[in-house]
Amino acid sequence: DSSADTIVGIDINGEKEAIARQMGCNEFINPKSLDQPLEEVLRAKGIEYAFDCIGNQDVLNTALKSLTPWGSLTVIGLGKRGNKVETSVAELLEGRQVAGGYFGNMKPREANQRLVDMMCAGSLNIDSMITHRMRLEDIVRAFDVLKEGKTIRTVIEF
């Protein structure tokens, strides 16, 4: 079964909640608004699958600690050189797993072709992920929007 009962989106930028819900999140958590540690909140929810999409050291460790036994962390985000996933042997013996990879662990040539095929078939809605389109001469503003956390993807038009 490839469906999840609950998908929890987490971001310190509360403005991302609407986008997260459009993309399928049932719940949204802004860690800045919590009165207890994020990993405690997540562990109470029974997180079986976690994905780190930004490569932040604290996010990696929180994601791993919040997993249930037999849970799986997939590292997608490229963090700073030297980032590590910190875990104990006991957590690994409980079945927790850590995996990572680019393009969903597919070879880029295959992955790109599959994504193009899915888009052409109408099963991948790329347009919903493009929040801004800007001209090349507005590239400084495009980076500002990215830094402000107001975009998912910005397309630069030539």
TrEMBL record:
Alphabetical list of InterPro entries matching this protein: ADH-like_C (IPR013149), GroES-like_sf (IPR011032), NAD(P)-bd_dom_sf (IPR036291)
Domain of life where this protein originates: Eukaryota
SUPFAM superfamilies: GroES-like, NAD(P)-binding Rossmann-fold domains
Cofactor: Zn(2+)
Keyword NAD: yes
One example of a Gene Ontology biological process annotation: formaldehyde catabolic process
GO molecular function, one term: S-(hydroxymethyl)glutathione dehydrogenase [NAD(P)+] activity
Keyword entries, A-Z: Metal-binding, NAD, Zinc
GO cellular component, one term: cytosol
Domain Alcohol dehydrogenase-like C-terminal: 4-116
Name the record gives this protein: Alcohol dehydrogenase-like C-terminal domain-containing protein
Organism encoding this protein: Oppiella nova
